[in-house]
Amino acid sequence: MTDTPHLGLPLIAASQSQKHVTHNQAIVVLDAIVMLSVVDSTHTAPPASPSEGDRYKVASGATGAWTAWDLNIALYTSGQWVKLVPKKGWLCFDEATGALTVWTGSSWTDLAAAGGYLTIAAAGNGTLARLGILTAADNTNRLAVKSDAVLLSHDDVTPGSGDMRVALNKSAAGNDAGFVFQQGFSTRALFGLLGDNDFVIKVSPDGSAFYTAISIDRNTGHVGLGGATADANNALLVKGTAFLFDRETDDVRFTFNKAAAGDDVALTFQTNYSARALFGLLGDDDFTVKVSPDGSNYFTGFTVDRATGQLRLPLASKFSAYTNFDNYIAANTWTKVQFNNADSNDQNAFSGANNNFTAPFAGLYAFGFSFRFKANATVPTKVIAAFYKNGTELGRGRAVSGAPVDDVTTYNLSVLTPLAANDVIDVRVHFATNDGYIEADQSHFWGHYVP
Length: 451
Description:
By secondary structure, this protein is mainly beta. Helices cover 4% and strands 39% of the residues.
């Protein structure tokens, strides 16, 4: 045996003279092939000015001093080229490309392409250009891992700080920095900075159509849900057609807290982002409901006093009217009393011009009147007073007397009656035999809606 079987190192023969020569040759070869690295793998002929120890992987079609050295290793040593014939399993690093190849017995095979999944960067600083673990890395996925689980732990050997952080860095706001979750390499969910610098979570049923579940504004931390985009004014925006809040055990509570009594804490209901109703603690600590026709003007529907629980209806239909002149009443005919002035008239349901009340909506209403008789020449033999609805006597009682006393006899009546929307109520009197007056400023007509 003249050479070793695996590395092909020359052996010292028995009784060989100058044994050191053979030994030195073996050391040179060993130095050349252990941790084998070549300048490149593209030369077919020796370079013009090689350096001592340079090694090249000879390309196919070798010429000159390298003729027939195809795919062998050319070593420049002691001013001459030496051919090193590779053995199966030799590894060779290409300094020009960063490729790590293995000799299969007939060819050099790139480990990355062959399933070895590793390419060393040409920079020579210990970095890896690609790394695959049980799967092939490529120029898009330079780190590829096939595993049931991946563990990233804090450094407890150095020891480190105890922290464990994973950083995803992108070059510009319009790019993506995110995590993608796939089924059969078709995306089903992703989150990160996707196309801008707001944090977003998206889902997809098919890898093509994507729906934004959550967005978090980078400037405020405000959150948008269901495809709503967070903005600077609303800490939480939600877009959807229905929302369910279910109990965890028994109770479900929502708490709204404000800083001071003069502030608002409320729910607002809008049409095309213009308010139409709101309720809550509005400018004080009483519970109030307000409505608006245009988002600018507001009307208070009702208020619940925080101290007593009493209900106030500021705009419920109610009125108090009086007549400021002596109403002449002809004998033997039903005549409407002209209550022509109002002390109060919420919702303008009372008309001084028509001397009547018009129900703004269906419901139960209470009415009352009080008026004093004033004589003309002779007094009537009988006086009847009643409420009329839509031109017909209401039929809920009458105020009746015989011959009245001038400036003394007073007539009073109150009723509680259901009305339909736009029903009209007025007061009418009947003087039998003789005429007379309903006295000015001593006659009143009032009413209100009963909630």
